[in-house]
Amino acid sequence: EAVLPQEYTAIKIEVVEFAPSAKEFFNENKFDTAGKKLYLVAATLRPETMLGQTCCFVSPNIDYGIFDAGNNEYYICTERAFKNMSYQKLTPKRGYFKSVIDINGKTLIGSKIHAPLAVHKELRILPMETVLASKGTGVVTCVPSDSPDDFITQKELFHKPEYYGIEKEWAAPELVPIIKTEKYGEKCAEFLVNELKIQSPKDSIQLAKAKELAYKEGFYNGIMIAGKYKNEKVEVAKPKVKQDLIDSKLAFVYNE
Ligand code: A2H
């Protein structure tokens, strides 16, 4: 656990159609999704990159809760995260964090989602084995242009779909260039993964290095090359994109 509080932007990613495995699970457990708005809640430090989402990751080893967030909305995230939210005035009742039902990440895989601001309209929930249950919401939205972890995970899924029990095309959405830096070009994650010879999502030491380099360079020297704030510095655009998402009720601030 971090010592200093970390502020995340929590992005609400709507599940527009559950995978057959999830539908079956809900039927067996008498959970009716009809008329409910269900959102995966992904914690991000890079709201300015949401244009480039290509899928949303859950861990096949984490049990997620589905929580009543009020106004007919339900959040899918770890209990730990919803508990924190319940003390941050983000839920109907302070200190109340009992889920309506729990579902394993694996059961959600293949569900269709609609990710806010994403250029790609129909995306899927996919597995990421390196998601930590102890951080954020346990849900990570995938931005392969700017996150080395996301880039290498999507690549792995694309090359071994059978192993991961997915359809190859679910991992096929094209990377969307959003930020340009002089050092790493328009696809900084791909550049750094190649430069540091990262082969797999398990190359954690090299990935930590790549993540650090990508984050610093993108934030301090990056220029937006797409979206509403095109041509603005990332440092300037970031708080604006974040505020736009919050104003449209597509995101909220989450601390831990
Ligand atoms: B970031 P920090 Cl484009 N397990 O969002 C593993 N990783 C997690 C996580 C969890 N439970 N919860 C969040 N994260 C990821 C975008 C992004 C992110 C980009 C570039 C870098 C980047 C799209 N994925 O993070 O340990 C989320 O991915 C690199 C720092 O709190 C979140 O932001 O510093 C970031 O890690 C939070 O990591």
Automatic annotation (TrEMBL):
It comes from the Eukaryota. Signal peptide: none annotated. Belongs to the class-I aminoacyl-tRNA synthetase family. This is leucine--tRNA ligase.
